[in-house]
Design goal:
Blueprint: E1 2-6, E2 9-16, E3 21-25, H1 36-42, E4 47-52, H2 68-83, E5 87-92, H3 94-105, E6 110-116, H4 122-125, H5 128-145, H6 163-175, H7 178-190, E7 204-209, H8 217-226, E8 231-235, H9 242-245, H10 247-259
Parallel strand pairs: 3-4, 3-5, 5-6, 6-7, 7-8
Antiparallel strand pairs: 1-2, 2-4
Helix pairs in contact: 1-10, 2-3, 5-7
Amino acid sequence: METLGAGAVDIAFERVGEGPPLVLVHGAGDDSRAWSPQLEGLASDFTVVAWDEPGQGRSSDVPAGFGLGDYADRLAALIEAVAGEPAIVGGISWGGTIALELHRRHPDLVRALIRADTYAGWRGSLPTAELRERVGAAARQLDAADSGVLELPPGLFAGDPPGEAARLVRAMAAAARPATLRQQLRAMADADLRDELPRIAVPTLLIWGALDARSPLRVADEFARAITGARLVVLRCCGHLSNLERPAEFTAAVREFCLALPSM
C-alpha cells in the first residue's frame, strides 16, 4: 500500500500495472480489497489504482462533517497526484455516487466513467418510502455494530456468493468503522445528483447485476436514458456486488470498454 496526504486525511491506495490510469472506488463499508479481482485482471493493460476511502481500510479517520463533496475532492487529489492526467474512474454502489460527484466538481480529471450498481444518491434514485426504509434499516444496523460486528445488508448477492467473495465481504465488514458509515449514510440519503447525469459528456459504461435488489435495474435504465451514449452491460444471475459475484464478466466488460476509448 502507498499513502497520500490530502488535507486533513491520509489516503491509502493500491497501485498495480502499467498503462492508462484506471481509478476504482469501492462501496460503503468496504476497502480496496473489494477490487481484488480487477486489480489482478486489469494490471496487464492499465495502471489500476484502488483507494481505501477516507475513514476506511488503512486510510485515516475523517473529521466531523466530512461529506460527499469532501470524498470527491480527496479522490481528485489522488488522481492528480498518482495519475497526473485525466483518469478512467469506476465506482460501485456508494463509490459510484462519489465518482458522479467527482465528475460534477472536477470534470477535467475524468476521461471516462464506469458506474456499477450505483445511484445518483439515494434521494436521487430511490422512491421516498424506500428511502425512509433504507435509512432506518441502515441506522439500526449501525446501532447494533456499536457493540459487535457490522451485519451485512441484504441483497448484496443474487444467490450464494463464491466462497472467496463471501469471506472477503465478511472481512471488510468486520473492519468497517461505524462512525464513518454514519457520516456516509447521511451524505448518501441526502444526495440527489440526477441533474448531473445529462451533463456527462465523457464515454460512460454502466454495469449492473440483473437481480440487484439494492439498486434495481430500473435505476440503470434511468441512467442509460439520461447519459448520452452510455452503454449498459447487464450481468445475468447477479446481484449488487457484481464485480465480486461475476468477476470475470465484470472485468471483461471493463477491459473492452477501456481499450476502445479514443487516445488522449
